[in-house]
Hints:
This protein is of the alpha+beta class. The protein has two domains: 2-139 and 258-379, no CATH class; 156-243, no CATH class. It contains eleven helices and five strands; from the N terminus they run αααααβββββαααααα. It has a five-stranded antiparallel sheet. The model has no long low-confidence stretch (mean pLDDT 81).
Amino acid sequence: MRILDRHILKETAFVSAAATSAFIFVLVAQNLLRQVVSAIAAGRVDGAEGLELMALLIPGVLPYALPMGMLTGTLIAFGRMSAQQEITAMKASGLSLTRIARPALVLAMGLSFLSAWINLEVAPWANTQYRRLLVGSLKENPTAIIVPGELNRQFKGIVIKAGEREGNSLKDFWLWRVDERGKLIQSIHAKEAHFERIDKPNGEIFLRVNLTEARMESRPSEKDSFAKPASFAAAVNTSMEFPATEILKDSSNYVRKLRWLTTSELWEAMDKGWNITDQSTPEEIAQSKMDARKQLNAHLASAFSIFTLVLLAIPLAMRVGRSETFVNATLALAISLIYYILTSAATWVKEPLLRPDILVWVPNLIVVALAFHFLRRVEQR
């Protein structure tokens, strides 16, 4: 019996691991291309920080990848064993389908507990660190907004270009000022430039540019272009400031999302409320407390979905009885899509009287009911 259990466990675990890895790759690649690669290309983070960001993405996608991976792996493994009559041989020896599936169910239950810990502790921490690293890099190093070799037009009336960047320094730095019509009125070239963020007491943000070996050419306005010549100036060290509130405000207004809270923080939010102020009404406080309870239950329901989806996948694999990976993977994607639509619908409910914290468990209850229905039908065959 132990040999049989090891065989079923090995089949399920191997395929599920491969499927989960594929889903992790797809989910990570989406954010990787959209945020991490662009941040590296823009110079906001270096290569080492880029690798750290990639690693921090993985815990955040595990709550989605693990249920889909286990569902796909179970369908493929049990579908292949059913198509090759292995399940039939096991049942002929007197084993029930529930006993045959026990290794897979034990694995799924263990992964559910692991996923609950990841959802409540690891993923919130990783998501918070990811955001801090991605946003904080701009706050700590404003020079990162300049991409070497490219024109930067983010600041009104100013065009900036740098030849290369070394740490916090920009080499071969150029700055051009233009008027409302786009006519050049001033050009500055420096051998080296350093950016410094200045936070004013009134909340405005300015960018101070410290220049080394700078040369400046100022041109007269269009009406005086023939009466006055251009003026030139040079300085070994000089600095200038210009407003940058709209460019740098995101790095100072960093706010954590509710789903990024750890277990202890969620308990505190359930007791005192989340993002409430002295002006918050009792209705707003009650809503924030309910949102915290709903988020805690959503984490737990997502973790438990690993077990419920595997419980459903086993009799479905028996009924389909196909060994083709494509067929089982397509079925798994269809089930996952329906499950996540139901889960999303439950999270859309905001009214506390409707108990959205309990509604998030409804998709799992539906899956369990369907699983027992199909298990009974398969056992009667």
